[in-house]
Write a structure and sequence with these properties.
Beta-Lactamase; 5-stranded antiparallel sheet; 19% strand
Length: 1115
């Protein structure tokens, strides 16, 4: 290749010199110019600043000087000797009956002067600014002066000086009893010299002005301020006349000032201002009154109503002379710097280019074949390193060529290598490629690489590969190929594209590693994992589907035992029946926990999203848990202050389940103290509101080393705890799973031996219908006294009542409460049933015996087991009661007694509905004889009766027979031959006739699977109730679909009962209520149940032996 000679202008030397000069001279020029302009600006600013400081000093001196003159004359005018002096002179003058000009020459006058002028003479000797002191009576007669000028013996108001500024200042002083300054004037009594007067009133003891004291001042001190060489300062009055001398040609009160600065001051401070007053006065450039270009500013001066302006100026030429000097210095510095830079640039450029020329020569020799050429350069810089690198490159090229041959050999021995052109035709394969594919080299060269395609990958897979490599990127994936004999093999493939000068692929090299054994192991692992998951799913589905078969007989057993306990039994029989009921309930709880746990594992746990009242739900839950807590002497507290809007959206049943597991443990493990449930709805993040519930107790606590495993399945703190307190270890595991489903978490903290706190934080929605929870009538500023020996209960009530705006006071003692009531009046009093120092009823009687408390309402807080004493409370004058723990509705109802004139209202006055169902025909579709009897027994309590179909087929036959018109169907979901879902679908498809297409169908199921309600809805059912059937819930459902009349409701303090989302068991207090309080029906149901359960048990056992899931589901 021919080497072209480089022109000088294209040489590195020229370019380096050029850029050296550009990169140094341009910044230098810019910085020099900026430095010069900055210096000019600094000089101007410094001159302006000095001018401003000089002006400000003079301004402050003038202001202070005149201020102290005002203070001096004010002090002298109040001197008793001066006041007496004018009084004596005035009296003497009036008594003399002489004219004023003759009186001042009389002996009597001269005698008065000698006797009284001592103080004034002492004053004038002490102050050098006083030229004359004058005493003038209130008629204007000048009775005394020290200087004895021509104005002595004249009248200021009527005489020849009446038009002077002095006379006008005197007149204002007499009129307003204030100190005034006359301004400066050419005073004829003083040979037309410049004079200025301060006048001050002389007031006698009665407050009457009897004259004035005047001081004529010397202005030497003021005029001396303005004798500076560099700056010009002068005073100007509103009439634009100078008040201070500037030069012999510009004398005070003779020269008129006309300048931009004076005009600005006049527009701001003149008699009729046209511009706003600027606090920071401006420094202006303008032509002064003396035809000079100056910088100037002004300071406004006000001396007792006399307006002057202090104008300060500096000559521009003075500043420009300093700027010219700075300019010369900068230019000289710039020229010297440029010369130095040129010399340095030349030397540095030459030092850089000479070694490079040597490298160029050596490179040409190396290109011509001299592989031993070396460059000698000992410089310790980049050029030296470049020379060393060149020498090293020459030495290593030979070594690298040898190593390249060795690496090529190693690559061929280990990796599977192939090269193809851009069309995919094979141009090279190594021996490893031949070994794994089974082909010979001649069978592959020139053939398409697609011949190895196994078809295991999609077109999109290969399209993505082509897209990557054609754009110049390296592609790596695991690929399944097919060998010549048809077997499949896996390779980890990396394809590297080689690009041409136009950046387009010219060939591809593929490097592969055999991973067939690894892929076989992965496949076996996946298959084993799928089998394990199928096994877990099958187990979970089996347990979930068994819920109906297990729960139905268990509910029957618990229900029958509950009814049995209502009959006449001896002590031994009652004890045995109670143990059996307790064991059955524990077994049902265990079954429910296992079923819930298995549902989560099976992925079948679904959450409801419905609107519900969180305050109401928590209130019901707290009351339900309070029975057992209060039996142990533990107080259960509910704090809902943190819930402003109680209507939320979520799954109330699962929330209650979380609380039941946690609070149930608290009740179990707490023997004294309290359990506090505190709930808050946090809406700080509007898009993600949270429900936070903290449950604290004073129980046995949890050891710190056990907290980490507390939420594991079947986990207990220790074996002794399990034996003492019972439990399966599933409750908290379910809590953790449910909180996770609700996008939340549960956190526990504990002090072992002193108690624990569980905090549940879950996502929740705010209903569109949510409103603030507050009393129906405003209780703001209403005063309430709480008498409760529990400080925890008092704190909770305090918080809620204060949040509603009430003024709350509290005490734990009845005697202290009586003392408080004597001092302060309250609107309502909350009284705990158990106060230590006085019986509750005795306390209430004492309150009602005092007429001062007639307007105060009295409400008793009872325990749940002691409720129902309404008659006794009413008799002694108590206005209402509610049980602890206090729910929101309890508090709202209790506070409402302040606005009600009704008789005593008690928490037992629950909502009562009087419902007339009329002539109603009901079809009960149920295969279990026990459930048939129970359902009909409940309906008899409502004066209703149902016809019975044992399965879906019979139900369709009865409906098609048209023997009577049915109004509603109660449909069991799990039945033989045709279940409830299929039967409902058939009815909706008019298989029972068009008359029943829209008949209300209410589902009844004992299945515990969450989502049953949605399943019933999808099947076409209108409503849903769970077994065992709650009579009140069934009544509510029948009212919803059948009632012909409006409900007549009775007023209450507490809330009406609602169904619980927890699994319902037979409560001994509710036993007879469930069967209409009929002992005869109870006996009949028990007999049928005992016969029916034997057959049910046998059928289930046979189905389990045969693993017949269909039959198990029906059972």
């Amino acid at each position: 290749m021919k080497i072209i000679k480089v022109k000088f202008k294209d040489s590195l030397f020229f370019k380096l010199m050029f850029w050296f000069l550009i990169l140094t001279l341009v910044p230098l020029s810019i910085s020099t110019y900026q430095s010069y302009t900055h210096s000019v600006k600094s000089l101007e600013n410094a001159a302006k600043h000095e001018l401003e400081q000089s002006s400000l000093i003079n301004f402050k001196f003038i202001q202070n000087w005149f201020y102290y003159r005002e203070v001096d004359i004010s002090s002298w005018s109040k001197s008793k000797s001066n006041i007496d002096f004018v009084a004596v002179l005035q009296k003497s003058f009036n008594k003399s009956n002489l004219e004023l000009n003759k009186y001042i020459k009389s002996d009597d006058y001269l005698k008065m002067i000698r006797l009284n002028e001592h103080d004034l003479l002492n004053t004038i000797n002490q102050y050098d600014y006083i030229y004359d002191v004058l005493i003038i009576d209130n008629a204007g007669d000048i009775l005394y002066t020290i200087a004895k000028e021509d104005d002595l013996g004249t009248n200021l108001l009527k005489g020849k000086y009446k038009e002077t500024k002095f006379a006008k200042s005197f007149a204002k002083t007499i009129k307003n009893q204030k100190v005034y300054f006359s301004d400066l004037e050419l005073y004829s009594a003083n040979s037309n010299d410049i004079a200025g007067f301060f006048t001050a009133p002389l007031v006698d003891k009665t407050g009457n002005t009897i004259g004035a004291l005047a001081i004529q001042i010397k202005l030497d001190r003021i005029f001396a301020l303005f004798e500076e060489e560099d700056y010009v300062h002068y005073l100007v009055g509103e009439d634009s006349l100078l008040r201070s001398n500037i030069s012999s040609t510009c004398a005070a009160l003779k020269y008129k000032v006309e300048s931009k600065q004076f005009n600005l001051w006049y527009e701001e401070h003149g008699p009729n201002p046209t511009k706003p007053n600027i606090e920071d006065e401006l420094i202006l450039s303008y032509q002064s009154s003396f035809n000079k270009e100056v910088y100037g500013l002004h300071q406004n001066i006000n001396i007792l109503g006399i307006k002057w302006v202090l104008i300060s100026e500096v000559d521009k030429d003075l500043i420009l002379s300093s700027i010219e000097k700075a300019r010369y210095e900068v230019v000289l510095f710039f020229i010297l710097t440029v010369i130095i830079i040129l010399i340095i640039a030349f030397l540095v450029t030459r030092k850089i280019t000479l070694p490079i020329l040597k490298l160029q020569k050596a490179s040409l020799e190396f290109a011509d074949g001299d592989k031993t050429v070396q460059v000698k350069n000992k410089d310790n810089n980049e050029i030296g390193l470049l020379s060393q690198s060149f020498n090293k490159m020459v030495n290593e090229i030979a070594i690298n060529e040898l190593e390249l041959d060795e690496q090529k050999y190693a690559l061929n021995a280990h990796s599977i290598v192939a090269i193809t052109d851009v069309k995919g035709n094979i141009t090279f394969v190594n021996d490893k490629f031949l070994d794994i594919s089974g082909y010979k080299r001649e069978e592959l060269i020139g053939k398409q690489h697609r011949m190895l395609n196994s078809g295991a990958h999609s077109k999109e897979f290969w399209h993505e590969m082509y897209k990557m490599v054609s754009s110049g990127n390296i592609w790596n994936e695991e690929v399944c190929n097919v060998a010549k004999d048809g077997h499949y093999y896996w390779v980890d493939t990396t394809i590297i594209p080689f690009m041409d000068a136009n950046n387009k692929p010219k060939s591809y090299i593929a490097i592969r590693t055999d991973i067939t054994q690894k892929k076989d192991a992965e496949l076996k692992l996946i298959e084993a994992n799928e089998m394990a998951q199928d096994s877990v799913k099958a187990k979970s589905e089996f347990l979930a589907s068994m819920s109906h078969e297990i729960r139905t007989p268990m509910n029957g057993v618990i229900g029958m035992l509950g009814l049995l306990l209502k009959t006449n039994l001896d002590n031994t029989q009652r004890h045995q029946a109670s143990l059996a009921q307790s064991s059955a309930s524990a077994l049902l709880t265990l079954i429910n926990d296992i079923l819930d746990f298995s549902k989560v594992e099976a992925g079948k746990m679904e959450l409801e999203h419905i609107d519900f009242d969180i305050r109401d739900e928590l209130g019901k839950f707290a009351e339900a848990m309070a029975f057992k807590a209060q039996e142990k002497g533990v107080e259960l507290l509910l704090d809902l202050t943190g819930i402003e809007q109680s209507l939320v959206n979520g799954d109330p049943g699962r929330i209650r389940q979380i609380l039941s597991n946690i609070v149930g443990n608290s009740v179990k493990f707490t023997s004294e103290g309290y359990i506090l449930i505190r709930a808050t709805v946090n809406t700080a993040d509007k898009q993600n509101p949270r429900l936070i519930i903290e449950m604290s107790d004073t129980g046995i606590g949890i050891p710190e080393d056990k907290i980490a495993t507390l939420f594991d399945s079947f986990s207990q703190v220790d074996a002794s705890t399990t034996r003492k307190y019972g439990g399966t270890g599933l409750g908290l595991a379910i809590v953790k799973q449910l909180t996770s489903l609700m996008h939340g978490e549960v956190i526990v903290t504990s002090n072992y031996g002193h108690g624990s706190t569980f905090s549940v934080n879950i996502a929740i929605g705010i209903s569109d219908k949510a409103i603030l929870v507050e009393p129906r009538n405003s209780v703001e500023e209403k005063k309430i006294l709480i008498v409760d020996n529990s400080e925890y209960s008092t704190d909770v009530l305090h918080g809620q009542l204060e949040y509603w705006g009430m003024e709350v006071d509290s005490t734990c003692s009845a005697k202290e409460a009586l003392e408080i009531l004597k001092k302060e009046k309250f609107d309502i009093l909350f009284l705990d049933m158990f106060i230590e120092d006085m019986d509750t009823c005795e306390f209430a009687r004492e309150i009602r015996q005092n007429k001062d408390y007639d307007d105060m309402k009295l409400v008793v807080m009872t325990s749940l087991k002691d409720r129902g004493n309404a008659l006794e409370y009413k008799t002694i004058g108590i206005d209402g009661s509610f049980p602890k723990p206090a729910t929101t509705n309890d508090l709202l109802g209790a506070l409402n007694v302040m606005f009600s004139s009704d008789a005593f209202v008690d928490e037992d006055e629950l909502e009562e509905d009087v419902v007339d169902f009329g002539a109603v025909n009901i079809l009960l579709v149920e295969d279990n004889l026990t459930n048939q009897l129970v359902a009909n027994g409940i309906l008899e309590g409502f004066s209703l009766e149902a016809d019975i179909a044992n399965n879906g087929v019979e139900a369709l036959e009865i409906l098609n027979a048209n023997e009577k018109r049915y109004d509603i169907i109660l449909m069991d979901c799990q039945m033989p031959q045709m279940d409830g879902y299929e039967t409902t679908g058939a009815i909706r498809d008019e298989e029972a006739g068009s008359n029943y297409k829209d008949i209300p169908i209410v589902a009844m199921t004992a299945n515990a699977m969450q989502g049953d309600k949605e399943k019933c809805s999808l099947a076409g059912m209108d409503d849903y109730i769970a077994k065992p059937i709650d009579p009140e819930l069934l009544k509510s459902v029948l009212k919803k679909w059948l009632s012909h009349s409006e409900s007549k409701q009775i007023v209450e303090i507490s809330k009406a009962t609602t169904s619980s989302d927890d699994p319902l068991v037979w409560n001994k207090e509710e036993a007879f209520k469930r069967l209409g309080n009929s002992e005869k029906l109870l006996n009949k149901v028990m007999e049928v149940f005992l016969e029916d359960i034997k057959q049910e048990k046998q059928n289930l056992s046979d189905a389990l032996d045969k693993e017949d899931r269909v039959e198990m589901k029906l059972q």
